[in-house]
Amino acid sequence: MGKMNTKLVTGISQMDCDTEPMINPFVHHLELKTTYEKIKTAILTLILVPVRVGLICFFVVTGWILATIGLYGVTEQELHEKPLDGWRKSLKSLIAKLIFCIYTIGGIRLKVIGRPSTRSEAPLVALAPHSSFMDSVAMVYLGGPSIVAKGETASIPFFGKLINYTQPIYVWRDDPDSRQKSVKEIIKRATSELDWPQILIFPEGTCTNRSCLISFKNGAFYPGVPIQPVCIRYPNKLDTVTWTWEGPSALKLLWLTLTQPSSNCEVEFLPVYYPNEEEKRDPKLFANNVRAVMAKSLGVPVVDYTYSDCKMMTKAKEMKLPFANSLVEVRKLRKKLGLQGTEREEALLKSNNYTCRDCSKVTFIEFVEIMRLHSNEQVALQLFRIYDKNNTGLVDIRDYLLGVLATEEDKTTEEIIILAFMIYDVKRSGKLTADNFCKALCHTLGISQEYALQIFDQVDRKQLGFVRLEDFLKWSAKYIPHLVYPGVNEKSNWKNLEIYQNREKKLD
């Protein structure tokens, strides 16, 4: 089976092997560890925060009033079709300086490295890594360039008006047509002879913990015009600004930032990047090359994570899937192992090979055997370790199967529940006991164990001590019909149920 497996067989623990640590850019941990930090935070919360909040509110309201005046008489269509000029443009510069005062009041100490370009030099500015709402300090420093932002920002009280004054390009993430329109608008403005402001983009498209640069979106690179890369850093002992998908809330970060006497921020303007002919023809190549330049300056690696990974993590957390925070790492390792799609995991469930002495206590050798991962045991060990957080040398293979099958493809809630029933029916009896039933529901619907037990009792009216899948689905169709999504192909919905029932008949 290869060198590593030989060592394992002869008794050397799999935990002794060194493997390259995986980077998860969507997780940030922040805790006040020492008594001194806690006491200092408490005191400054009482003394410093009220003063700062009061002054910040004053400047925000003042900026909002000026923005309201500046946009008075300007229709949305006019705001979209031509740049502001005259006194409105001058007022925008004043508002930007006013808003910059907010960051100073909040304790942000900005250090600028390099020289910002003009629009004639670079119509686009790419800022990374994007890790915080504090990154907007670069925007106000530049005098309020147009930004590419998610559409929801337009409805933020007070700040929405200020953002609208920059004549932003909004992207509605769940609307595929909006993305195409946004790309066209970027091309139109970047190549226009009108005096549009520079366009500031966050090419990663989401926030990370700055441990790497994730994949850049291609939209801003389609125009094929010069771009100025801008790197941002927060060299602070206590990181109170990083806002990721798993970590402190925005409100907690804002509170802790306001309790710091000062917070350092460095913005480095790199030389303008001029694309060659090949990069002009290939936006993806252009984006990757700009990312490489920025990563070198920052001293961090590039990792091919995307916004879709964030969506997957969010879904996993809502479902309370086991090891939800690590599923982006699982996805990357599976790709290294050549596991495209979920064919191998699905085949395992359909076959008679999905049996184990104790599926909650699977060793590394058993895991490799079950998943047929002999070709690259080093990567397989990394995958195994994700599910072996306590270094016991044992994992629950059901956690792995459910995490992969529930998130790798776009499935309905009902389809995921059917898969969960199949996964937790390890005895292949077509029945789930109360314990496994609760696990199946808690890790798919995100409900509490207490509520899952109540459902079990309602479905198991005859008190048989087990529940069949079809009995639960009949009950759910009556009492929680939202499980069946409207408009979903019914035949597709019941595909896995048919597999499950056929398997049960064979056993009978």
Automatic annotation (TrEMBL):
<comment type="similarity">
    <text>Belongs to the 1-acyl-sn-glycerol-3-phosphate acyltransferase family.</text>
</comment>
<keyword id="KW-0106">Calcium</keyword>
<protein>
    <recommendedName>
        <fullName>EF-hand domain-containing protein</fullName>
    </recommendedName>
</protein>
<dbReference type="InterPro" id="IPR002048">
    <property type="entry name" value="EF_hand_dom"/>
</dbReference>
<dbReference type="GO" id="GO:0016747">
    <property type="term" value="F:acyltransferase activity, transferring groups other than amino-acyl groups"/>
</dbReference>
<keyword id="KW-0808">Transferase</keyword>
<keyword id="KW-1133">Transmembrane helix</keyword>
<dbReference type="InterPro" id="IPR002123">
    <property type="entry name" value="Plipid/glycerol_acylTrfase"/>
</dbReference>
<dbReference type="InterPro" id="IPR045252">
    <property type="entry name" value="LPCAT1-like"/>
</dbReference>
<dbReference type="InterPro" id="IPR018247">
    <property type="entry name" value="EF_Hand_1_Ca_BS"/>
</dbReference>
<keyword id="KW-1208">Phospholipid metabolism</keyword>
<keyword id="KW-0594">Phospholipid biosynthesis</keyword>
<feature type="domain" description="EF-hand">
    <location>
        <begin position="375"/>
        <end position="410"/>
    </location>
</feature>
<keyword id="KW-0444">Lipid biosynthesis</keyword>
<dbReference type="GO" id="GO:0008654">
    <property type="term" value="P:phospholipid biosynthetic process"/>
</dbReference>
<keyword id="KW-0812">Transmembrane</keyword>
<dbReference type="InterPro" id="IPR011992">
    <property type="entry name" value="EF-hand-dom_pair"/>
</dbReference>
<dbReference type="Pfam" id="PF01553">
    <property type="entry name" value="Acyltransferase"/>
</dbReference>
<comment type="pathway">
    <text>Phospholipid metabolism.</text>
</comment>
<keyword id="KW-0472">Membrane</keyword>
<feature type="domain" description="EF-hand">
    <location>
        <begin position="412"/>
        <end position="447"/>
    </location>
</feature>
<dbReference type="GO" id="GO:0016020">
    <property type="term" value="C:membrane"/>
</dbReference>
<keyword id="KW-0012">Acyltransferase</keyword>
<keyword id="KW-0443">Lipid metabolism</keyword>
<comment type="pathway">
    <text>Lipid metabolism; phospholipid metabolism.</text>
</comment>
<feature type="transmembrane region" description="Helical">
    <location>
        <begin position="43"/>
        <end position="74"/>
    </location>
</feature>
